[in-house]
């Protein structure tokens, strides 16, 4: 197989490139060169996907059997690439997100659940989109990217991952959990240790995407780990403590109380979120098609080992994650009083 990865230097893109090279595939990557370089062995074309001349230069490295798009943000980005590459792109595989589902995270969703209403010319600056919340904007633009991807001349594959974790993760989710686990003491968490969660390992996403490309598949998949009793928030935290050697007394705060105190879901307590659909995404279609998800323990242990060798590059999103220690101590004090009432 000859594939083009739009992206390839950072998280999922990097995993896809490494995996494809290990399969003996020929890989071209296309990035601006701001997020480091892709793995050795890939042909790297430096350029900006929003620059027509750069895209015209990229075509010279084709044609490809498939193009995997990990760097798309707005539908116009999809159309510009398809316009420039034409049939050279081969099958077009878009990395969308479960956020493209209109009802996520409020309701459980499956592949056929409605997407956000969107347009192939939807843009972040459109007044109706700019007026939405940031997560809704992201979802509307991803839904628009899916519409645009549908115009690919040689067919389309859509992947909608939920939260991706694993080696190379840079958003700060795992980084802040590891730092908190190492600090020890009383650790304020949300909900219950048995709350099921569905993060998917970046290597499992990569394997699934490449396997579907290899068989020239088409269609759309939600890419999340299955809902299983042992795949829960408590297991995630226990694994963080185990790999870091931290010891902590876990305090599972009642969600309503935490929300009353203004605790930010998803970030201040990473991956903790109350809407009932957050971790109720059906990935059955992908599971039936062979998506295999490793254990949370393995993902956490490998991410920790990777961080020892390759600390994540600084990223603005890292500051969003985790709770200030003084605030946590104050909240714990108030929580004890609340529970004693
Ligand atoms: N991470 C998650 O939990 C998650 C969950 C669901 C869906 N997704 C989706 O999965 C995809 C991959 O996510 P990721 O977190 O692995 O991606 P990422 O780390 O944000 O990587 C983006 C890549 O695109 C390149 N890039 C960005 N803008 C570009 C431009 N204008 N021209 C050329 N290259 C450009 C970057 O390299 P340069 O900066 O060097 O150009 C980088 O290699 C994204 O579409 C994301 O929406 C991610």
TrEMBL record:
Residues 32-51 are annotated as: Disordered. Pfam families: Epimerase. Residues 41-51 have a biased composition (Basic and acidic residues). Residues 3-77 form the NAD-dependent epimerase/dehydratase domain. This is NAD-dependent epimerase/dehydratase family protein. It comes from Myceligenerans pegani. The lineage of its organism: Bacteria, Bacillati, Actinomycetota, Actinomycetes, Micrococcales.
